[in-house]
């Protein structure tokens, strides 16, 4: 592992994303990680550097693409297997966000889909991501689902750090993350893996 400052990490990722394509293609980037690894904060931090590189950016969170409560809580409100398997509305994410950014897509993206608090559709308006634009999607359990991305970043923590940084009321989620680690092995699937035992002191995980 190679320690890197948060600022240098953001600069490295922005440069790597920008270097993926210099034509009119739109790019889909996933920042994958448990809430304790703060994937949303990293995705947010990439917005301005990418715009300075001339890349329009659209932020989307997987937390806004959940299935209705009747599906999520079919086996109870704290079932880790349901969290892993059922919570994310993968079909809606594909249909409303990822597929429209294919080379032959129209670029019209739905930024939010489902409000978990009201358990209703958000009724958000579609927005168009211009050519050369970048979609930044954050959330857990994004890899191993055959979702189409041009770049994937996985934020990882040891089991001890994850337990320490996860609020006690959310400890029921820990088996889902352990299952994700062992069954999916997101660190092997991701284009770039970052260790964040302390999000203030990330480290790049280098592969042999």
UniProtKB/TrEMBL annotation:
Q: Which domain of life is it from?
A: Bacteria
Q: Which UniProt keywords apply?
A: Kinase, Transferase
Molecular function terms, GO-annotated: kinase activity
Among InterPro entries, the record links this protein to: P-loop_NTPase
Q: Does the keyword Kinase apply?
A: yes
> What is this protein identified as?
Uridine kinase
The record lists the lineage as: Bacteria, Bacillati, Actinomycetota, Actinomycetes, Kitasatosporales
């Amino acid at each position: 592992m190679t320690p890197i400052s948060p600022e240098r990490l953001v600069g490295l990722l922005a440069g790597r994303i920008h270097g993926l394509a210099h034509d009119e293609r739109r790019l889909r980037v996933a920042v994958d990680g448990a809430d304790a690894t703060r994937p949303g904060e990293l995705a947010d931090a990439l917005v301005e550097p990418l715009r300075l590189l001339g890349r329009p950016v659209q932020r989307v969170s997987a937390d806004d693409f959940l299935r209705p409560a009747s599906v999520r809580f079919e086996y109870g409100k704290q079932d880790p297997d349901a969290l892993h398997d059922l919570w994310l509305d993968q079909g809606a994410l594909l249909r409303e966000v990822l597929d429209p950014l294919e080379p032959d897509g129209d670029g019209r993206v739905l930024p939010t889909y489902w409000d978990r608090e009201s358990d209703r559709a958000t009724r958000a308006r579609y927005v168009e991501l211009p050519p050369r634009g970048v979609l930044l999607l954050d959330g857990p359990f994004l890899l191993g689902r055959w979702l189409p991305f041009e770049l994937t970043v996985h934020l990882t923590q040891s089991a001890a750090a994850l337990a320490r940084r996860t609020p006690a009321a959310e400890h029921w989620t820990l088996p889902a993350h352990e299952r994700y680690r062992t069954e999916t092995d997101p660190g092997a699937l991701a284009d770039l893996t970052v260790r964040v035992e302390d999000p203030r002191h990330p480290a790049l995980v280098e592969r042999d």
